[in-house]
Amino acid sequence: MADFHSPLESRAFFDTVGLFATGVCVITARGAAGPHGMTANAVTSLSRDPMLIIACVSKRAQMSEYLSTTGARFTINILRDEQMAISNHFAGRSDEGESPSFRFVEWDGGPRIEGVLAAVGCDVHECLPGGDHLMVIGRVVCLHQGIEPHKPLLYFKSRYHDLTGGLNRAAPAREDLGDDPQLFWDPWES
Question: How many domains does the chain have?
Fold first, then answer.
C-alpha cells in the first residue's frame, strides 16, 4: 500500500510533485544590466486560441521583477539533454564554479539561448498571485524549433534524465543556492 502523509507536509508535497516528470527550461528576459535567466520546470501551455503559456516564478526570484509588468517580453528556452550545465548555471550552481559556454541570440521573443531544443517568445499577458509564486501568463509572439535530433533534458525525482535512460544525474540542491535563488523550486525544493 502507498505511503500517505498525514497531516500534509511540505516535504511530502515536494516529493509527490517530484514524481511528475517535466522538461527543463530557462526563462530569459532583458533586465537593466542585460539578459537575465532562471531555470524553471513549472511551465505549461494554457491555450491554443489565443496562444498562451504559463510559467511559475518565485516571488523571491529577481525574475519576478522583470515579468511583473504586463507587456514585458520573455523567452522560455527548452533545454536539450546535453545542456545540463546551462540549467545548473541559471539555477545558481555552475559545475566547478565555471560558467558553461552559451550565448544569447536576439529574436522577436527577447534574449534566446543559442542551441536550445526549442523556444517560445512571449509578452506578459497577465500575472496572477499563487501563494509564494507568480503565475506568469505569456501571450506567444514567436516560436523556434532547434535542429534535430530533438532530445530534451528531463527532470524527475530530483535528478536530470534523458529519453534514453543514460542520463541520471543529481540536479542542484536547494541548500546550494543561498537566500535568493533564481530558480522556481517547487518540485526541486529540499
Answer: 1
